[in-house]
Amino acid sequence: MYVISAVATDVKCEIKQLKYTIMKQSTFWREASRGGAIVGLVGVAFSAISLLLPKTAGILGFVNVALTIYLLFWFTRSRALQFQQEGFSYGQALGFIVAMSLFAGIIAGAYQIVASNWLFTAQYEQVYEQVLAAFAQTGISGEQAESIASMYRSMIFSPLPALFWGIFGSVIGNGFYGLFVAIAAKREPDLFDEADEE
């Protein structure tokens, strides 16, 4: 009778642990999308303000980087705190940051489509002309210069390339910050909780 009771208790604990694990895994994308949306919206706000007030672009860029790193840490650490018993490894933290970066990139790409084609067309045209002038100074001319100009124009003004480069830039940029943020956000398993359960 004691053996049956012990087995039933073990099965209940296993089922409870399985439900707990499934619940945490199902919240991964919801939390990553929420965090990524906030990181993306912050980046968009700073980008729009720097286009409206070009003299403040340097300081706004610095504040944007600092705030982005803080938000990546805060959302990742919040996620890590849900994994008290099993811990939250460096790889899990970095993976969560990359997932947030995907959503932040979607917002950044969508903003660039709207900003370059409707909101700040003149500013984007000016940047485009400056880049072409810089290429002209390197001695590139003829078909090669036209090809580069066409590619760069599509990167800025065409919807799909702008969205792709927004996502790509976000994953690379925030992923780089994530290499360091994940060190601070990871969480070791709580050994005392496991001992208490036994």
Write a structural description.
The protein is an all-alpha fold and 198 residues long. It has one domain. It is built from 8 helices and no strands. The protein has helices at 2-26, 28-52, 57-80, 90-119, 121-137, 143-157, 159-185, 191-197. The longest helix is centred in the middle third of the chain and has 30 residues, at 90-119. The protein starts with a helix and ends with a helix. The mean pLDDT is 87.
Please give the structural blueprint.
Layout: H1 2-26, H2 28-52, H3 57-80, H4 90-119, H5 121-137, H6 143-157, H7 159-185, H8 191-197
Beta-strand percentage?
under 5%
Overall pLDDT: 87
Number of strands: 0
| Assembly category | single chain
One letter per element, helices H and strands E, the order comes to HHHHHHHH
Distance between the termini: 21 Å
Helical amount among residues, as a percent range?
over 70%
Task: Provide a short characterization of the protein structure.
The chain is 86% helix and 0% strand. The protein is mainly α and 198 residues long. Helix 2 (28-52) packs across helix 4 (90-119), helix 3 (57-80) runs antiparallel to helix 4 (90-119) and helix 6 crosses helix 7 (159-185).
Keywords for this entry:
198 residues, mainly alpha, 8 helices
